[in-house]
Amino acid sequence: MRFKKRLWCAVLCLLVLALRLPTAHAAENIDPLRPVSLTVTFRSQDTALGGLPFDLYLVATMDRYGELTVTEDFAQFNIDIRGRNDEAWRALALTLEGYVAQSGITPVDSAVTDENGQVRFPANVEALPQGLYFIPGFRYVQDEYIYEAEPFMALLPCEVDGQRVYDLAMQPKYSQPEDKPMVCRVIKVWNDAGNEEARPTEIVVQLLCNGEVYDTVTLNDVNNWRFLWTNLSSHHRWTVVEQVPEGYTVEIVREGNTFVVTNTGDKPETPPGLPQTGQLWWPVPLLAAAGLALTIAGLLRRKGADHET
Predict the structure, then answer these.
(1) What are the CA-CA distances from residue 164 to residues 34, 36, 128, 156 (Å)?
(2) Which residue pairs, CB below 8 angstroms and at least 24 apart, start in 21-28?
(3) Which domain holds residue 231?
């Protein structure tokens, strides 16, 4: 009776793992040889905005399991690409914008919107690698109207409603600011509870005007880790970057004309034996299932030996 209970327990565990295997293998249906494309449309209600330049940057490459590996160009930035939802992608795009403008990184492709306000990638290259892409934001003036498009991320291919999409169509979010002098505010936030003694006493933040340094300020306890710029032209695209302190990653979120710069302290290393970010998890259930199968075989062999004796 005890043997039967142990056997059924092992079989049940094996079945549970088997039911999980389709999920583990779901990412394997990425075809690494299938071409990917991105179509961007920029329209304001019924008005198509043509002649807008778009640059496409490859942030990370993707393997057949959907795992992302940051490219050499973007490895220099202290960013975290593990988040995979709209909020995480938006924060990553806002963070990258200023750093990309300063870095001089060459885009993998560039194009201009047509008379319908559309641009399709690949445009000037034969093919795009599968991976995570960044498209910068911009401020555009047409017919006395100002249009400001947010930067955004595009994952090629991506999963939409359970289906793998290789030809992605997107429309960036935009706003129409008033044509009058504006202010920009930067606020510093620390996310390192329990390790406050590692914080630097000050950090340097730069305000960029269309990607060029406009002003440099130092934030510290004296100014309560914040600063306000006034009388800025609404015809330009304003962003901020910071000199990221060692041991921290950076995230920059913009709400209106306020930039919140958050530094998160590096987490302790993952204990040995656990897959690191970027390593493959899919073999784990397979190996576990194989181990259970061997266990069951051992139990059956032992049972047979008991009968022989």
Answers:
(1) 11, 11, 17, 9
(2) 21/285, 21/286, 21/289, 24/281, 24/282, 24/284, 24/285, 24/286, 25/282, 27/64, 27/65, 27/66, 27/67, 27/282, 28/64, 28/65, 28/282
(3) 182-265
Q: How many CB atoms lie under 10 A from the CB of residue 30?
A: 17
In tens, the pLDDT along 115-142 reads 888 999 999 999 999 999 999 988 777 7
The per-residue pLDDT for range 166-197, each reduced to its tens digit, is 999 998 777 766 778 999 999 999 999 888 88
Do 105 and 212 lie in a common domain?
no
Reference 277, options 142, 22, 79; nearest CA is 79
Helix (H) or strand (E) holding 301: helix 283-308
For residue 65, is it within any domain?
A: yes
Distance of CA 133 to the CA centre of its chain: 9
20 occurs within a structural domain: no
- The structural domain count of the chain equals 2
- Read off the amino acid at residue 244: V
Structure tokens at 133: 């892409």
- Indicate whether 52 and 128 sit together in one domain: yes
